[in-house]
Automatic annotation (TrEMBL):
SUPFAM superfamilies: Bacterial luciferase-like. To bacterial alkanal monooxygenase alpha and beta chains. This is F420-dependent glucose-6-phosphate dehydrogenase. It comes from the Bacteria. Residues 9-300 form the Luciferase-like domain. It comes from Methylobacterium iners.
């Protein structure tokens, strides 16, 4: 069976503000919990007016406070932006408040531009220390020794699972060497998905946290009652990617009738390349697409990105995606029982 989870972008739209985006994220998580999703993650981005999750640990706490059982975490914290000691304190605190529900995914990119990197007082080469920073973070979560002089309170001894995130084979190999679960960003970097999965699985070394490879990958899925309506809703994300190609990141835009009137041939080619791992359509279309994606990759978990402009339409999309996945998991369970 394949686990279903969500990456929540905490989008600020032309009709909302940051507070509304954060509250909508919590509401979506509460609904996703009822619909059977395993976890919801938010990502650290800076200097982007259209994304309200810069203070990632604060947003995670807000979402966790409005839910009961779903795991909530970072997908991820961009570790080069921070001292590992401070991240351990933050996520140790979250784990004490919401025990057994907090995940900590770690990324090597800054999640922003160089202006914001300088504003955060971080060096441009901080990402070179990423493997060492991960090990340092692990040490702060370990139980404190009797004579240990530097303790990350209340992180020491907290059960916060670490994940390595990536969009290339670098993160895959690091996750494998450390025996950590791996999450690949195929929702915007689809070309390296299969090579990264191969690198991770072939190099994996069991650890105290994980005894076998565990892989999650992101995929863009937008569902609606009809294929035509889903196609219209998907223009919001297509415009966001076209704007990214233009270097004009802004607020999320409402869907339009014809995306061809918005982007140039070059913008279309670049955006389509990044969005190659996308499924857009009715429940039937989404079910077929998810089945093919899981069969191709052998994933343990699928992390859905459903970038829909209007909150109620996004709730409906996430509900329909869960509906599409249920028969697939039921069939997988029947196949597994038949082999016993």
């Amino acid at each position: 069976m394949t686990v279903l989870s969500l990456l929540e972008l905490v989008r600020v739209t032309q009709d909302t503000d940051a507070g509304t985006a954060i509250n909508n994220a919590r509401d979506l998580a509460a609904h996703a919990e009822a619909w059977g999703y395993r976890r919801v993650w938010v990502a650290e981005h800076h200097n982007m007016v259209g994304i309200a999750s810069a203070a990632t640990s604060v947003v995670i706490g807000h979402i966790a406070s409005g839910t009961k059982t779903i795991r909530v975490g970072a997908g991820g914290i961009m570790l080069p932006n921070h001292a590992p000691y401070v991240i351990a304190e933050q996520f140790g605190t979250l784990e004490r408040l919401y025990p057994g529900r907090i995940d900590l995914g770690l990324g090597r990119a800054p999640g922003t531009d160089q202006l914001a990197v300088r504003a955060m007082r971080r060096s441009a080469d901080a990402s070179d220390q990423f493997p060492q920073d991960v090990l340092e973070l692990q040490a702060f979560f370990a139980p404190a020794s009797p004579n240990q002089r530097i303790i990350a309170v209340p992180a020491a001894g907290a059960n916060v699972p670490l994940w390595i995130l990536g969009s290339s084979t670098f993160g895959a190999m690091l996750a494998a060497d450390l025996g950590l679960p791996y999450a690949f960003a195929s929702h915007f970097a689809p070309e390296m998905l299969l090579p990264a999965l191969d690198a991770y699985r072939s190099r994996f070394k069991p650890s105290a946290q994980l005894d076998r490879p565990y892989v999650v990958a992101g995929i863009n899925v937008i569902a609606a009652d009809t294929d035509a309506e889903a196609t219209r809703l998907a223009t919001t994300q297509q415009m966001s990617f076209a704007d990214m190609v233009r270097g004009q990141r802004g607020l999320s835009k409402p869907p339009i009738a014809d995306i061809e009137t918005y982007w140039s041939p070059y913008e279309k080619a670049q955006a389509t390349r990044m969005l190659a791992r996308s499924i857009v359509g009715s429940v039937h279309t989404v079910r077929a697409g998810l089945q093919a994606f899981v069969a191709e990759t052998g994933l343990d978990e699928v992390m859905i990105v459903s970038d829909v402009y209007q909150h109620q339409a996004r709730l409906r999309s996430v509900e329909l995606i869960a509906e599409a996945m249920t028969p697939l998991n039921a069939q997988a369970l029947r196949d597994e029982l038949a082999l016993c």
